[in-house]
Structure formats: structure tokens, C-alpha cells
Amino acid sequence: MSFKRIREKLNxxxxxxxxxxxxxxxxxxxxxxxxxxxxxxxxxxxxxxxEDGRCVSLLKILxxxxxxxxxxxxxxxxxxxxxxxxxxxxxxxxxTINFYRRNYIxxxxxxxxxxxxxxxxxxxxISVAKKLRLEENFNGYIHLKSIPGASDELMREAGxxxxxxxxxxxxxxxxxxxxxxxxxxxxxxIKPMLKVKNEIIQYKAEKxxxxxTPKYAPAGQSTQMIIGATGExxxxxxxxASHYYKQxxxxxxxYSGYIPVAExxxxxxxxxxxxxxxxxxxxxxxxxxxxxxxxxxEILNNKHPNxxxxxxxxxxxxxxxxxxxxxxxxxxxxxxxxxxPGLGTRSxxxxxxxxxxxxxxxxxxxxxxxxxxxxxxFIICASNQWERQDLEAYQIKAFILQNSQSKFRNSYSSQxxxxx
Amino acid sequence: xxxxxxxxYDGSFNGFLTSVFKAFDERIEVADIQKNSLAQNGLFSDTxxxxxxxxxxxxxxxxxxxxxxxxxxxVYFAFLSESSGIEMTLYTYIKKLFSPIDMVHLNFSDDTILxxxxxxxxxxxxxxxxxxxxxxxxxxxxxxxANIEPDFDIxxxxxxxxxxxxxxxxxxxxxxxxxxxxxxxxxxxxxxxLDLQNISTNSIKExxxxxxxxxxxxxxxxxxxxxxxxxxxxxxxxxxxxxPKRYWKYLSExxxxx
Lengths: 420, 258
Fold this sequence. Notes:
The complex is a heterodimer of chains A (420) and B (258). Chain A has 16 helices and 10 strands. Chain A has 420 residues and is an alpha/beta fold.
């Protein structure tokens, strides 16, 4: 094969695929059988990190960037004047295998622009995955994009070869979608999602009866939303995220700060800043919902439709609910412990184990790794000092901000700096 | 009063466990446990050389494992950290394990227990890093070859990972610092000791030991790495936090192409 041509295609089609943020390669439980190639039974591995600090674990490319749709937020929209290219199926297979053998990647993340129609595109994606599994005996991770509007039969087949399927909802609100992607239909996104969810449930049930039932998308489904393209509130985003977690049993919802790719008066101007900090706060909220037992209404509601930018969402919740505190570190159960700002699930586990041997004091907590600069206002432990001394919420916040060094500080500090 | 002794062992993990066995068995007051390559005579204590005995080492291993499988992992990982004085910290840790207190290995308010946990965690982190950062290069003999230079002696820990992942290709991972490697011949993984002189780092110069396609694929990977970066989100600090500079010389994506 001609490496020069492949390099050109790879540059175009990797560049176009990079706005999809999903990089997960875990949760698949696909063992290496019959001395084949690859194994994705363990945890995911980030093989490298790009200079923007994002993980590289999968070969993330488009099959082609030819597309019949003209969605304003998308770099491959049909009206955009860019170089177009398309991989042959065998070329993608060869690239994946050769990268995998050199331990560059965990597997393939294949997406595509939509050419001809949804089913034709979906079929091509499936044949890449099928070829890798059957001809190359490949047990690495495969993430395929579900193409909006693809038929149920194809979605059923896709899950047999892929570890994860995803379809990007992109715009959190239906009205936003109408505005930015007028030729796309909201239902076209929902249909494949629903099909995959039902198949997963069905295959799981069958697996309980017949051990030989094949795997169906063992790493589940995920989706992605663009943040800051249509003026939606954090509440809109997180309510719709928790809707997808509940209704479609999503493994992950990803949030992607909008990166201006086009001059369009419906969108933020080109060169406007990527909302990375807001994105970070949304991910923190997502974690609170999935691992810390918070409900979305506790964090975002009509009174607080947006997250604080200067402090994390858990701290912000705690300051609004001071009546729950202080919490006794040596008594509280795990569910209560993880609600304390500055204390994560790991430290909570360690605390519960260690306190069986003695009552813990500030020193122990510090060594265990609790972020005391935040936590100290909300806890009591085996010590006479209690930091809060009946402070008001705004005072606590001021103390914490004063004594912490956030890398984001410049982006929210309203104080003018004197010397520059 | 019994006199404290310094135990000298051969530097292997089994040798260390044998010393622990001996100390328990003969009720020795241990002043220190030292590798024979680094041994120093104490002014006031006797030294005694311990010969590695696999069955004695095994008894200690099984004894700790019976207490907790979590603890045995911690002991092994922390030992591989090669940190100075690790033997005595581990000895204290093992003594605590065999004390009558139940589940003592979870007492994170105890300094020794916490220290061993943290060391084991650092070693575990580097093990995981090496599973990520190994970059194989295909030699003309059909062997996928990689150099590594880890801070800790993690090669024994990654063997299983690479064996189950690359079951259908021959590979060799060589630790440049400790001068030994793991070689998989499609059947088993063996430890081989060799002293490679020409370490192939990331230099632009091509090495004739590798196939010509090898450099084409490295070039593709290097290109992919660049085009998947989003310039408007640049965050070099985060980048070097995840990929510390000391590992760069073996990463083909960090090679500056001509």
C-alpha cells in the first residue's frame, strides 16, 4: 500500500474525528481466545496524551468525511469547503492491526460522515468491525458510531461485533437541534439508541439461560452533547443527561465544550474561547450523580439553573445546605461521608477502614489524603478544634477561595490585577 | 540481651522472604536486612548471610496470603519499588500482619501500613504506565521489540498483561536500566539477561535491525498523534503530567520527524 496516500487520508480523517471526545476503552470483558490478537478484559489504557491533555487510547477516525447533512456545528458539514477523503475498508483494518501490534492503541473508534444514506453508511462501519473480528481474530476494543436513522436489523448486527455503540445527541434541546441541524430529525437519534438498549437487555437475559449467547455491545452505549453552542443552561444539559442515563441505560454521557468551526450567526463567533471550565464543572456534576448518590435536583433546580464557576458543585451544594453539617468523621456512614466537600470515595473507604482501630484526628485525615482546606469547615473528628466557628456560607467560601490555588483562577477572578 | 543482627540476602524477592522466615524462626533481633550488593557492616551488630530457600520463602508468602491477598500484593509491589530501606519497612509491616489484631493491614492511621500502601500504589501506577508506554518495533527477525526504563522494577508485573494481549506475535521487552528482558516465543515468557549496547531510542536515524515498514508505521502514528490534537484547547501542563518527560525518549509519537 502507498504510505504517502494513507498518511494524507489519516491526517484528514483523524482531524475530522477528533471532536468526538469519547476515549473510553474499558468495561468490555472480551478475552483473548484461541491465541488471537488482543484482549480487552482489563481496565482501559491511555497509551498517550495529546498536547491538549486528552487521552489517546483508540485509533479515532472517520471512514469518510463526505456528508449529505449540513449541521451548523459540524466541521464536515456539506457546505464547508474542506478536503474530503475516504478510507477503504481494508485500509482501516490494516491500520488498526498494525497500530495495535505495536501497542499504540487499545482498539478502533470508527465514525463516519453520512454518504448516500444512513443504512449504506452503517453497513460499511459494520463490515470493518466484522472483518477485524472474523478475519484478524481481533479481540481489542471496537467502538462504532450508530448512524442516525439506521435500521433496526443493522443496529442488531453492529452490537455483535462492536464493544460499544454511541450516537451523539450533540444538541441537548430539541429546539436547538431544529435551529442548527434543520435536516436532522430528533427521532432518528432516538430510534437506534432504543434498539441497542433493548437488545442489550434481551441478550443479557438470554445469557442467563444459555451460556453460549454471544456478547452484544458489552461496553454499552454512550452519547455526547455540545456545550455552549445554543445558549442552554447547565440545568437543561444535566436534566437531559440524567434522562439519557435513566431511559437509555447509557454508560456515559460526554460533554464537549463547543469549538467554533464555522462563521455562522446562529453560533458563537470563531475564535471565541472554548468553555473548558464549564465543561469541567459539568463532568464533576455527572460524577456526583453517578458515584456520590446525589440527585440532579439537589444540584441544579429553578433556583440554581447554572453551576458556580469558581467552586466545585459539591462545595456549592454544601454551602447551600449547611444544616446537614458538621459531620462526624468517626461516626457517619459512607453515603454521608462522600457528601463532604474535599472527600472522595477513596478517602471515604480508607476512613471507614482506619477508624475501626482508633478515632481519627486531623493528622490522620491529612495523611489519608483528604483535602482539608475544604473539608475542615464541614467535619468534626477526634480533636477539640472545630474549624467552622459558626461561619456563614459566604465566609467559608471566601476562606476557601483565598487559601486555594486553582489553575482556573484567572478565568473567573473579577479582581483586577495591579501590574499587568 | 540478644544482640541485633544484620541479615544479608541475594537481592531477590525469595531471598528477602527467606530472611523474614529466618528472623521469625530463630527469633532474631533484626537490625537491618540488606542486599549483598549494597551491604554495609554495622559498627555494633553482627552480620549473617541468608541463602535463598524457595520452600521457606513460599511458607512466608502463603502465610501472608492467608492473612490477606491484598497484603501480599502490597508486599510484593512495595518490594519492587527498590526504595532504600524498604526491607526493614516491609519486615515491620509483616510483623504487624502477624500480630493478633485482626485486619491490621487496613489500619491506614498507622505510618508503616500507610507507607507500604503508598509505595505499592506508586509501583502499581508505573506498572500501568508501562502497559501503556511500551512501543514495539518490528525487527527483521519478526520479533516485536521494545525498550523501557522504568523507575521501579515492574517487568515481572507486566508479563501476564502482554502475554494475554499479544499471544500471536513474538515480543521482547527490555529493561535498559536493569539489563534484563522478557521474551515471549509464542508459548511461554522467559526472563533473559543480556547487555544491549546500542539502545535504540527515538533518534531520527534508522536502525537496520528493523523492517522498512516499521518506520512507515511510526511515521503514520506520529502523524496521527499530531492531527488528533485540538490546538484551541492546548494544555501542555496536563500533557506532561500524564506523559512525564522522562519517558519521551522511547515514545515514537514524541519523535520529531524530519
